[in-house]
Amino acid sequence: MRWGIAATMWMGAVLFMSYGCKGGPESGGVQEPTAGGEAPDRAGEGSEAVASAEDVSSPWGATRAEQCRRPPRPAISAKAKKPLDEGARAAAQGDTTSAETSFEQALKRDPDAYQALYNLGVLADRRGKEKVAIDYYRRALGLLPDYELAARGISTILLRRGQVQEAVAVVEPLANAHRANLDLQALYAELLVEARRLEEAWLAARRALKCDERFVPALIALVKASRAQGREELADSILEQAMQVDSQVAELHYLEGERRKAEPGGLRDALAAYQRAVQLRPDYAEARMALGIQLLAGGNYEDALSHFQAAERLVPTLPEVHVNLGDAYRATRQWTEAQRAYRRALELRAELPEAHYGLGLLFLTAAGDFPGLDELSAYEKAVDELRAYRAQMGPRLSRDDQSAEYLRDLERLIERTRRRLEREGGT
What we know:
Among the domains are: 1-42 and 71-162, Serine Threonine Protein Phosphatase 5, Tetratricopeptide repeat; 318-427, Tetratricopeptide repeat domain (Serine Threonine Protein Phosphatase 5, Tetratricopeptide repeat, Alpha Horseshoe), CATH 1.25.40.10. The protein is built from 21 helices and no strands. It has helices at 45-53, 64-68, 78-92, 96-109, 114-126, 130-143, 148-160, 164-177, 182-194, 198-211, 216-228, 232-245, 250-261, 267-280, 285-297, 301-314, 319-331, 335-348, 353-365, 375-393, 402-426.
């Protein structure tokens, strides 16, 4: 199906975990604090090189190194650490109820445990309770004003709703107030790309790269900005540079998949890139969606279905997920489940022509086999859905759109079925 949203950040947030391997949201959803409980310092060798080269007084009265030095994060309370760990483990095992209980316990033991608030927001979002999730994220920001994960959580939900300007309005003041938080600068740059403020996006990303020329999230933002500007060769060059810095970042492989998909004969490489992204980050819903679409197109229906089901668990309020899920159920001849998925997509977004198209094909394909519908009724429903699809597409509908041929076929099928039923009724 066609994607209605271009960003790779709208799919959902990932849990903050106080144990496990090191890495931020883009590298598997596990973020390990330092021994003192501070957020990891993501300014690497490039940061040191830039700082030493520009260690002179600036117009603001601070050296580059001082400007790039991120204030330490509050330490994780010893009282809250154990339930935080327990909650993260429960969430990793799919035990959402126990995870929520543990995170709430962490908050009782330490009301300033902003990580627990953030994690509760993630779990609420995965249950489809976006307003509750935003409230948790805002409370986390109230405790830690430059908490980039909470800012990303809020902006992710807003982007999912199509509220790009509102997402920018949330992050812009945070990025301006906390220049040393490179994650916020990269997030701000991504949102500016979504808002088509591309020159400003370059400035925001470069702000982070002045502190750390190897900072991958900022490089990712530049890849997206370059592609939005049609500068594909530049985007590819930056992507390759970022891969050399850290090939374990899942989003880089997703972007590589998008690059390969656009090349003639590149679908196999695209499939491998999407698979690698999912391996690195199993909760990367957009990579699962992209992988599922390729698998579905290649006839691997069962595997495609499993990826769409995983995406649904991660972002249950995204209509596109349910349309793709409906396509996979239809391909596997699970008619009732397919109809339920398409209807859910339309509940989430009434103007969604792809869902009507899927329903039209469903009733056409399942005619005579759909539970509770006779053959003629199924054909008539298919006509209604395809007409709704064409009406919602409006001027976007091409002259050679396949729906016109389906409608012509349906007219013949309906007429033939009516004649047969008349003959059978007369005998």
